[in-house]
Amino acid sequence: MLVDTGAAISLIHEKQLSNMQHKPVAPCSLKEVHTANSGFISLLGIVKLTVRINHLDTYVNAYVTPDLICPMILGRDWIQQYYVNINFYTNRIYLHNSLASTPLLPIPRHESVIMTLSHSIVIPPFHQKFVYGYVPIKSLDDALFTPNIALQPARMVLLPHSLLHIRDSRGVISIINNTCHSKLIQCNTPLGFISSSTTTADLNVISTSLMNSPDFSSSSLYLYCHVLIVVFVFLLN
User: Fold this and answer.
1) What domains lie within the chain, and their CATH numbers?
2) Which residues contact 29 (CB under 8 A, 6 or more apart)?
3) How far apart are CA 139 and CA 119, in angstroms?
4) What is the pLDDT of residues 73-131, one digit of tens each?
5) What is the pLDDT of residue 199?
6) Are 108 and 156 spatial neighbours (Cβ–Cβ below 8 Å)?
7) What pLDDT digit, counting tens, does each position of 16-67 carry?
8) For residue 152, which phi and psi values (nearest 5 degrees)?
9) Do 135 and 113 meet the contact criterion of CB atoms below 8 Å apart?
């Protein structure tokens, strides 16, 4: 489960919900929401859930969707309602002035592999492109992309840290051209590093379903900053 300070609403994947006993899913007037990567998440309805943090039961109205990359996201609606404080020094999140707390997941240590650009691209001025990168890994869920810091000043482009899935040795990342000139990036350019996901980072969540969008290759530039936190919690009936 993710606690996402950049998400205005809370969401749950329909598959996760199907494995739980829960109250009936109610229809909602909101049919889709925009993501930070200029994509869309479709909404099937809304359901009231109980989320237990140690001894404290909290409640959230979560939108049901088939498009999440993770089982559930607790957004700012839940964060603000329960006065959630994320403390990186203690590696815990606290609710209601420390009435309850839970640790963040420990950060795994795994060797990184290099991701290279699958094909040459040209990024127009002030645009963002979602591209395929190649890695020597057949499949990996919740992979963390860490950008090649040498590439950014050399090409004058931005590559955000991202959380993605690797399928058939490929994953989707975004590259941003925030200049007034087009930028060419050659095939096989080292884009960055792929490793098993850490638990505290400034991340973009990128789904390969974006590749099917007609606006996949290029979009006007909008920048977002948010924090995704993976935590231990319990979903109750």
Assistant:
1) 2-105+201-224 (2.40.70.10), 113-196 (2.70.40.10)
2) none
3) 20
4) 899 999 999 999 887 667 788 998 888 888 876 544 456 788 999 999 999 999 989 99
5) 41
6) no
7) 998 888 889 999 988 888 876 667 889 999 999 998 888 889 999 999 999 8
8) -65, -50
9) yes
Sign of the CA dihedral with 48 first, then 105, 190, and 150 last? positive
Map tokens 């992309």 to a residue.
145
| Owner of token pair 């969707």 | 65
Q: Provide the whole-model pTM.
A: 0.51
Q: How far apart are CA 165 and CA 171, in angstroms?
A: 6
Q: 47: which 2 tokens?
A: 């359901």
Cβ atoms of residues 223 and 158 within 8 Å: no
Pairing of strands 139-147, 219-220: unpaired
